[in-house]
Amino acid sequence: MKRWFTIIAAVMLAVMLTACSETADGVPDGGKSGKALFVGREGGGDALTVKQLKSLGYEVYVVGDKELTTEQALDYGLVFVSSSVNSGRVSSKLKDSPVPVIYAESQNLGDVNLSGKASDIDNGDYMGKAIAIREAGHPIAGGLAGTVDVYQSDGKIGFVVPEGEGVIVASAPDDERRAVIAAFEKGSKNLSGEPLPERRAYFYLVNGEEINQTDNGWKLFAATVRWAASGQ
Q: Which three-class secondary structure state does DSSP give residue 215?
């Protein structure tokens, strides 16, 4: 009988430890995996995105584009690059990082060989409030399908034209080549045929439009974060 009590106690302890290692949203909590590095600004629209990351269970650290280093990212479980950055300062610093990265700055996709570099052709933005889900079965789609309003009113929605083995999860409604949300799996190839060291994603959110986001927009954001982070 004593042996059964010991086994039951061990099982209960294991369950408790597992529960403590994740938040209710499934984001790892504690250690490096519970920390997110936000490359952008402390205030403005970026503060709203940081708040969303915190609501997903992350301890968030903000760093400016000039201060970002390749080595710094190694201390975090996720890196988010805001469109508020100067893309030239971020450039390819995170190209070979073994940490999941979500880019909201479309020009940086060209710097890491996940798209071309021509403005308004390979990357840019369009005015609107809706996007079209192209891969409803992908985890990033968050159960959404068809045309989805991600903004409350017309605003700038960023896009990239992915190259390599990227998956267009959602696009501009009138142009399926213009990805507004794109997923790049770990090990998939970039434009140069190099395998990615970890998951990468592009998310359409242009700085200044954070306050314009709908609940579905933030739902897609959360799904993108969870997908990127769960690849580790």
A: helix
Tokens 């990127």 correspond to what residue?
228
Domain shared by 133 and 21, yes or no? no
Do 14 and 94 lie in a common domain?
Answer: no
Separation CA 48–CA 43 (nearest Å)? 8
For the stretch 183-193, pLDDT in tens is 999 999 999 99
Distance CA 122, CA 106 (A): 9
Cβ partners under 8 Å of residue 6, min gap 6: none
Q: Which of 96, 54, 99 is nearest to 73 (CA)?
A: 99
Q: 198: which DSSP letter?
A: S
Q: What are phi and psi of 115, to 5 degrees?
A: -160, 175
Q: Is there a single domain that holds both residue 89 and residue 17?
A: no
CATH number where 144 lies: 3.40.50.880
One domain, residues 116 and 180: yes
pLDDT at 24: 40
Instruction: Name the 3-class secondary structure at 12.
Output: helix
Q: What value, to the nearest 5°, has the Cα angle with vertex 65 and ends 33 and 53?
A: 35
Q: Which residues pair with 180 in a beta bridge?
A: none
Residue of 99, 106, 171, 176 whose CA lies nearest to 141? 171
pTM above 0.90, yes or no: no
Structure tokens at 7: 């086994």
* Domain extent at residue 55: 31-229
Q: Mapping DSSP to helix (H, G, I), strand (E, B) and coil, where does residue 25 land?
A: coil
